Amino acid sequence: MPRIAIGGFHHETNTFAPSTAGFDEFVAPDAWPGLSCENLIIENFQSINIGISGFISTAKDAAWSLVPLIWASAGPSGPVTEDAFERIAGILLDGLRAALPLDGVYLCLHGAMVCAHIQDGEGELLARVRSLIGDIPLVASLDLHANVTQAMLDNTDALVAYRTYPHLDMAETGVRAARLMQARLVRGTPFVKAFHKLDFLIPLTWQCTLLEPGASIYRRLGELENDAIASLSFTPGFPPADIRECGPAIFAYGDDRNTVETVVQTLASDVENRKDGFAGRLWSAQEAVAHAIERARSAKRPVILADTQDNPGGGANSDTVWILAELVKQKAEGAVVGLLYDPPAAQAAHRAGQGAELDISLGAGSGLPGHAPFETRVTVVSLSDGAFTASGPFYDGSRMQLGPMAVLEIGGVRVVVTSRKQQAADQAMFTHLGIELARQGILVLKSSVHFRADFQSLADEVLVVAAPGPNVADPAELAYRNLRPGMLLGPNGPAFEQESDARA
């Protein structure tokens, strides 16, 4: 019976974001359980859409003996502090030392972690694990937005990434990782690897696999994977990470070097040939609200505005009020905005009680330059403790713990305020507060793409809005310092030139 150690360490780092991720951020639960150790991992990750859950279920079916180490995750933000990384990595490594000898190690990772003292968080973690365990199999699952590095590839037997954005296949990716572990155990020797980095950044908003060209590329990926290819992955990358190895990557594993290298180059050519499709219109707040009001007059379903640059799933603080203020200014009655991260406002609403009216300052708590709170009078429509179970396909089964929440109304415009940052990607975030989503004229969601999994079927139309915020939609607008020279800041963007880059 194989004895396999398992663990997880998740962070998606936007190096341009205003907040860092300290140890406390990894301890607190949000959409996923908080920091969990040993058998609590098995208990907490039953039937959740995340890689480690799929791995555990497959391992149980195979009657493997699992040795759970540590799971830790914090919401996307600026860099992970040195203290947080070293403490969590230390717990994981201490657990591994105590567990040896082992037959294999599985880690559920993101792949885009940047630390205050290390550019490549996962590469460093995997190198430390490899130095401890020797040549036993080490397999990791990754997010589709991973910035895969050479160190990550060199220190693992296999990496396997999600194939959907919205990420509906996170648990399924854990299942595929378990199958790769099984194949590696059976063969007894490492797979042949091939790795290719692309030379252009892909904006997050247009990486969606429900849209073209992503839909066709991932369909092609599935067709290329066969008996000779144990695994093939394409990670479009996480652009707002100012590190040298930021950007898209393709990697594969198999038995024959020529076959593995050929399949990687075939998929790379397919991505290159379709790169013009990784683009779309970005609306201003004023244009989007005016268009949505006009459209809502005749539409039978809501018009959705994606507030992509304040998406907490991309490292923003979910606290900008540009679109909210524009809705109120243009008298967009029947509009709903969510989720606005503002713990003091949520607490004030709970103190005042349902039905109360109060003067309040909304948003802008992160102190970004040029951002100011929205000073207004609100009515408290409804309240909750922020504890509910997600019902949509992305957060499927997650037991949300978002702290005190409130629905506040301003002249017919309602805003859902929360005490913990969380991307607006599940209908239950609104419905548990009494909001009937299908009856709204306009929905503003602080999300880039994940909302599409649970909301797109509701929408008459979707507009991607570039209101000011730190999750910048166009990489050409970011002041990179560390990106490798010659990298294109977009599929057809300008090339980054380190020597002459004076924007910073």
Gyration radius over CA = 23 Å
CATH class of the largest domain: Alpha Beta
Strand count? 19
Question: Which CATH architecture of the largest domain?
Answer: 3-Layer(aba) Sandwich
> Structural class from helices and strands?
alpha/beta
Could you give the distance between the termini?
Answer: 55 Å
- Our count of domains comes out at 3
Major sheet: size, sense and barrel closure?
Answer: 8 strands, mixed
CATH topology of the largest domain: Rossmann fold
Explain briefly what this protein structure is:
By secondary structure, this protein is of the alpha/beta class. It has helices spanning 23-27, 39-44, 51-61, 82-99, 121-133, 150-154, 170-187, 214-224, 257-273, 285-296, 322-329, 343-352, 428-431, 452-455, and strands spanning 3-10, 36-37, 65-73, 104-109, 138-142, 158-161, 192-197, 229-235, 249-254, 303-307, 335-341, 357-362, 374-384, 387-389, 399-401, 405-410, 413-418, 442-445, 461-465. It folds into three domains: 1-190, Response regulator (Rossmann fold, 3-Layer(aba) Sandwich); 194-280 and 475-504, no CATH class; 285-465, no CATH class.
Describe it for me?
- It is built from 14 helices and 19 strands.
- It is globular, with a radius of gyration of 23 Å.
- Helix 6 (150-154) links the parallel strand 5 (138-142) and strand 6.
- The strands form 4 sheets. The chain has an 8-stranded mixed sheet. The chain has a 6-stranded mixed sheet with strand order 2-3-1-4-5-6, with helices on both faces.
- The protein is 28% helix and 22% strand.
- The protein has 3 domains: 1-190, 3-Layer(aba) Sandwich (Rossmann fold), CATH 3.40.50; 194-280 and 475-504, no CATH class; 285-465, no CATH class.
- The chain is of the alpha/beta class and 504 residues long.
- Mean pLDDT is 95; it is low at 500-504.
- The N and C termini lie far apart (55 Å).
